[in-house]
Amino acid sequence: MDYTKNEMMAIATGREFKDGELAILGVGLSMLAGYFAKKNHAPNMNPFTEGGVYGSTPVGGLPWGIEDNRISTNATSFTNGIDALCMLVASAKVDNAVIGCAQVDKYGNVNTTGIWEDGQQPWKVGKYTLPKTRLNGSGGANDIAIGAKKYMIMAQHEKRRFLERVDYISSPGYLDGGNAREKYCFPGGGPAAIITNLGILRPDPVTKEFILDAYFSFSSVEEIIENTGWDLKVSPDVKMVPEPTAEELANLRAVDETGSLRK
Description:
alpha/beta; Glutaconate Coenzyme A-transferase; three-stranded mixed β-sheet; 21% strand
């Protein structure tokens, strides 16, 4: 294997972006996936950050923040977080996006708020209590999860992250499944995929429970099931994701020219 698991995850995520889409990107692997797509097969994709930097491409490697000079030097325009999240995202004008997670459950609900002691999760005790470990919070991910037409979740595939139910919902997926999002009148369509360092999960069209759709050449159905904290269902059409082509790897590494995310 002449590529890393993170590179495979970024390429698999990048393949989900289409030419001409308006897409909001965070830092790290989500930004790598988005700008890989723009360089590789979606030259007319219109990326922007939650800080309001619009229409740029990274210069000198991937930035460390959403307004870093590497991402703002050649921007088409600058606005602010209110315009980015409250005008574009909340009005369902954004076609695609990527968010990360500390925990994700079988309905695509994401927790980035905190980790609680077993039995002390707010949904179990009926009120918000102090977590054992406080995390960074949702940032713009909650807005994206509610307002984007679709979005993807990127995560390292570990049983401690993939839970039957997250400790706390920072960014809603399909809540408790079915048409639950419609009850809350969310303008966005919900998560289209959970893409990990082992494979790809997609929601069942009716129940909205995430099932295994594809695995990578270096993983297996058995490994993915073993690293999932719920009884993961497997699609009858489960398949192996095509490995990166030489052109895809070259384009990916041209975006991540410092190799900061190649581990």
